[in-house]
């Protein structure tokens, strides 16, 4: 199951490993502080900034960490390769999908990694329990294996503009894609990658509770947006919401291997 419901998780709290992967682009929200104030019972905080390669010089450039760093971080979280992992967030970008992508990239069994549909927003709307107690963690030894076919780099994006081997979708808002409004990062120009298609994440979710639309509606949306090559690669501002597009497409295509342009517009549009 790519997605699990709030009711399912509520019934299986002690049978799975739960990760809070909240991340916010806006500066007036601190995901760790929010986690410390309230989280789902047994949840472990997963810091997307710390669990990324920040040495690339991009603001919030969520390049994947090294395999050794990922192994170390997940081992310290007490997660085993055989664990069923449920990831949630409290972010409008649905940053839980970015953590989902990272676990798949580093070889966790796709059948053992799911995102909580609706995240903490839906959980709280339903009056389900949140706590502020620290989750007890027993460190373990986790082993990772990279699936390098799941990411694209800038040179491959440039090559694809000419050869059109895959279709690039952009999860940013329509106005950002069209260059009608400025980027949130002053070091990044407005606009989009030549030949890419706009598919804002907001069009794939019910904003009232942050749940993804059902399979039939998602399929209609993707069909209406994408023409030509159905080998899809996702992008956005900094590879967070791109992962949400990848998860949405995996719901309607069981054979799809999630792929994102890891640098996204924060890299490609850098001034």
Helix/sheet category: alpha/beta
Beginning-to-end CA distance, first to last residue: 41 Å
Task: Provide the low-confidence segments as ranges.
Answer: none
Number of strands: 12
- Could you please say which CATH topology of the largest domain applies here? Oxidized Rhodanese, domain 1
Looking at this structure, what is the CATH superfamily of the largest domain? Rhodanese-like domain
**Rounded radius of gyration (Å):** 18 Å
Supply the number of helical segments: 10
The spatial strand order of the largest sheet comes to: 1-5-4-2-3
Oligomer: single chain
Q: Quick one: biggest sheet?
A: 5 strands, parallel
What is the mean predicted local confidence, pLDDT?
93
Work out the helicity level: 25-40%
Give the C-level CATH assignment of the largest domain: Alpha Beta
Hey, roughly how much beta strand do the residues contain? 5-15%
Cα shape: globular
Whole-number tally of structural domains: 2
CATH architecture heading of the largest domain:
3-Layer(aba) Sandwich
Return the string of H and E elements: EHEHEHEHEHEHEHEEEHEHEH
